[in-house]
Amino acid sequence: MAEPNAFPDYAGDLSVKDGWALLENEPGAQLVDVRTTAEWAFVGLPDLSSLRRAAHCTEWQVFPGMAVNPDFTARVAAQLRAAGATDDTAVLFLCRSGARSRAAAIALTEAGFRRAYNLAGGFEGDVDSEGHRSRRNGWKAAGLPWRQT
Q1: Using an 8 Å Cβ cutoff, are 50 and 27 in contact?
Q2: pLDDT of 2 above 80
């Protein structure tokens, strides 16, 4: 379930497991992966094939310079509309650990999407005591489906 939202600029944070449940239970819900092309290529992608969907992939910050993508909002809104999304469709945003995806959820809320959620923990999650990701929290640590490209 959504955590209380201290930032009224978006629908709130969901755990990755709650996000997966939402994707399973709402056939129109959409997932937007806002990581970089390098992250998609070398770290992997969420696999929504069992839900007969695919994640939309649009960089929030453009690799390698990491400047915010000036076309992000327009591009994602067009992708979502093409997939049948409306202003009331649940849209889940995913990045490495939950920071870029929060900013993306805020941007899409400002563009009129009322149910833009941040997936807290992201794809790889927080660093553990040994300095590694994908062990403590996040999509991969939760055992949710993903694939390497």
Answers
A1: no
A2: no
